[in-house]
Write a structure and sequence with these properties.
The structure is a single chain. The model has no long low-confidence stretch (mean pLDDT about 85). It is built from 5 helices and 9 strands. The strands form 2 sheets. Strands 1-2-3-7-9-8 form a 6-stranded mixed β-sheet. Strands 4-5-6 form a 3-stranded antiparallel β-sheet, covered by helices on one side.
Length: about 190
């Protein structure tokens, strides 16, 4: 999305906004909300460190995309965690096989989570499980699956992660995967 052009600053100073300026403002607001949600998720994940989990936030995938968190469980399983900070006024639900937040179709978020997970799986050479954690908005049935992606409320995140990482501990494999992720999935560096 780029910065405003010189003439857009002049137009804005006059109190007028072009459609492009409004789109950029909405994009900046979504990015800011996403950052808040990712920070909440990261804070909530901290107890897992003492249990042998590896938490890698904001990892670059592809040329310019990022995955909010890559997690490696003590048993060597890997997960991608995509965070959503959505309005609590609307329910998150599954309608005719599509992810919905109120009346808004959010199924593209599932496609994104699946793509990010495929990229992480290629980088690590192991199967990776995609997860979407939702802050604020209530989630039908305390969580559900859509096309292989688990969607659940943030207050169930630790319980579900612990439940899914139920194999025998393999600290050597977990460390190997975490180190591989550090190299092949570097932190996403954003420009200001």
């Amino acid at each position: 999305m780029g910065r405003l052009r010189w003439w857009q600053h002049l137009v804005a100073a006059a109190g007028v906004q072009t459609p492009e300026m409004r789109r950029k403002a909405r994009h900046r607001a979504r990015c800011a909300a996403g950052s808040v949600g990712e920070q909440r998720t990261h804070s909530m994940l901290q107890p897992l460190l003492a249990e042998g989990w590896h938490i890698l936030p904001d990892r670059r995938v592809g040329r310019s995309a990022n995955v909010d968190h890559v997690l490696v469980a003590p048993d060597g399983q890997a997960f991608t965690l995509d965070t959503k900070l959505w309005s609590g006024r609307y329910r998150v639900r599954l309608v005719h096989g599509r992810l919905r937040h109120g009346d808004a179709d959010r199924d593209r978020q599932v496609d994104t989570a699946l793509w990010e997970t495929r990229e992480v799986s290629k980088a690590l050479g192991v199967p990776v499980t995609p997860l979407i954690v939702v802050h604020n908005a209530p989630v039908d049935g305390s969580g559900f699956h859509v096309r292989g992606v688990s969607v659940f409320p943030a207050d169930r995140m630790l319980e579900l992660l612990r439940h899914n990482a139920n194999g025998p501990a393999d600290p050597r494999e977990a460390q190997r995967l975490a180190q591989l992720a550090e190299v092949r999935l570097p932190p996403k560096v954003t420009r200001g």
